[in-house]
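Researcher: Here's the sequence for the chain we discussed earlier.
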Amino acid sequence: MSTVRFAPAEPARIDRLLAELTPAARADRRGAQRGRTGGPAGGPPEWWLRIPGPELIVPRLPFRVARLLVDCSPRTVEPYLQSRGRSRHRPAPFVWVLPPVIAEERLAWYAEAIKRLHQAGERCFQVGHITQIGLFTGQGMDPAGTGFELAGDSSLNMVNSPALQEAAHQGLSAVQFSLETDRPTLAAALAAFAEATPAGRGRMQVGLLVYGRPPLFTARLDAPHFQGQRSLASSRGERYYLDREEEALLVRPHQAFSLLQHVGDLTRVGVDYFVVDVSQGQLKRECTEVTALLSGRGALPEVFSGNYDGILA
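Model: Thanks. This is the structure I predict for it:
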């Protein structure tokens, strides 16, 4: 059965968790009542959840999921299309995620997969490289029109407002900002982009990964001594592991990346949607960590926040 279902919600528990967020998040909720500009059409930011596959029961989370991100690969596409007729109602639309690296000989497969998914009613996709937009315009559709709705991954490396404006010009309806950003850079880019583009439902949404184990290095090198899931350590004692996917070799951190402790601040500067990636590791444990980090209570898992606080600059 190809379906995604969420475990039964407990509204009282979810409301309690939301009420127990960090002080910054509580201040943001007060600011929302005064009318801020973040989120689609001026509303609160959306939550996008990246999951391992389309046939899952997702554990409870203390937020409403607006989109479900699923890898576009032979592992997911074919089973989904074959069992789609038996699928139950899913709680949020799928966004099919293309990898950042696609080999020349694999382009035909992705073009055909996009076509078949579109014929099955799927219209939301996420590109990992700006040139992948050609896979959609080549279908005779304008990505900004009714044929497809395209988002951009953080691998597009949006680092300033001109990059955001170009992504919007290319027809993207949403894009994640670069993971390498610090807070002043993000705030300045979002302010400049908002000033340069008309407000309203047609404006491109700008999101940010706030939890996950994103690849810190990506390569097509396929050497026999690079075994998948092999661990390695840096000179500073930081631990990573190799993740061999169909299109590339990735290096991921053992320790999760998290900006969940900054969601109130990110909302105030104008981030439109938060991406939570629970596709790596054990799903229930990942969701438990996300809930703990949002509540800010109890024994919290160790995480790193990249350059958000400017410590890597």
